[in-house]
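The following block was generated as part of the benchmark described in Methods. Ligand: zinc ion.
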Amino acid sequence: MPAVKGAKLELTCISRGSLVQELTFSPWLAARAKRLRIYRRTINAFWLLIALILALNLLRWIFPKISPLVIGAIWRPFGLAMYVWGPIWFSLGLGCMLGLFKSPSCDRQFTSKFSLVWFGRTCQNCHFDIYTLKHKPANG
Ligand SMILES: [Zn+2]
């Protein structure tokens, strides 16, 4: 049955065509979204740090007789991490304020200028979600 064979061949061509289109577009979009997810985690880590500082202060308040050496030992890794994370956080925040982060979907400014302490997961213009790689409804 040559007619059926021909039809089958055409179907494979079409499916291959859409596969090529997906492969050329998606990885680029996904890579840009992934980079924004890393920025988001770094900037939003600010709140994790605030929570840890409060928890450590609470620890000192609950156990007033705890040795300052122990408190120092707990603090030291955070102090060292601040030297690494602090400048990165500051430059990312500066990037937000200058509008350097573009949406992978609409190529306009992704965040608001005041996202130094909170980096949203959706684009402020087109509501593109960097986790699902889809557009969210405006009030969703
Ligand atoms: Zn956008």
